[in-house]
Fold this protein.
Amino acid sequence: MIDYQKVLSEITTDCALSVQKGVVATYIPELANVDIDKLGIHLIDSDKNTYSSGDATETFSVQSISKVLTLAQAFGMLGADIWKRVGVEPSGDPFNHLSLLEQENGIPRNPLINAGALVVADILVSQLKNPKQDFLNFVRTLTGDHTINFDHAVANSEERTGFRNYATAYLLKSFGNLENDVTTVLDFYFHQCAIAMSCKQLTQAFYPFMNQGKCLQNRTHLTQQQTKRINSIMLTCGFYDEAGEFAFEVGLPGKSGVGGGIVALLPGKYCVATWAPGLNAKGNSKLGMEVLEKLTTKTGQSIF
Ligand code: GLN
């Protein structure tokens, strides 16, 4: 039996000493204030045992990790029709690039780059009665924790400075792949990204993805097929132009956010989340990737 607690403690002790921590995201001004020395990890296994080390219960901005959760909600509502508006291929480009979108006539490569997430946000704005509140409730129900909330300061900060996202949304609109007003879709998108969660809460929210669609409370939120499809998208697209590197180093499906969080899972075995705010050049948490590489190497467990 693997002693996960021992492994997590060893890894955080090791990684906390690292001097190369990357840089905190500054293009969303509110994120620039986050303490770069934060480091947390939380793991929940299929028997619901939990293991933690470092700042695992402190909340941070989930940012692009939310794209998996909006995808899950939209996929649940629309089924396979969702793939008429967004693809499932890795982009090999940074998360906020526009050139492929222009070349490929407004159909984003996948739902985890910004363009694809904006299409998913548009679908939810069309489908939900009170989009922001209904999505927040979906996340709360998945997690089994009703204290989860938006960080409005972060949402407002991005609303003022997210010019690339405005450009992306207008380009989608020009191709007819956005039903609602650009500002309405962006307001939803900036709020989904600004949800604040801890590593512990993230592992709860992602539990269904490692448990064939069933959450911690044993309710079914996704079909087995849907979790298979979403996990495959996480593996191939979750880290943008670093998806290959993450698969190579870590060997798990996962998703990162510019708040410094990463969630990853080993289907049927465990779900893990890390938080280290310093990012590498690709916008993924530098220490988070190192922590997860050590986890799968030390335990000898990965999907490969
Ligand atoms: N809200 C951020 C953006 O749209 C999310 C990016 C990310 O976490 N990679 O730029």
About this structure: The longest strand covers residues 40-45. The two ends are 19 Å apart (CA to CA). The first helix runs from residue 4 to 16.
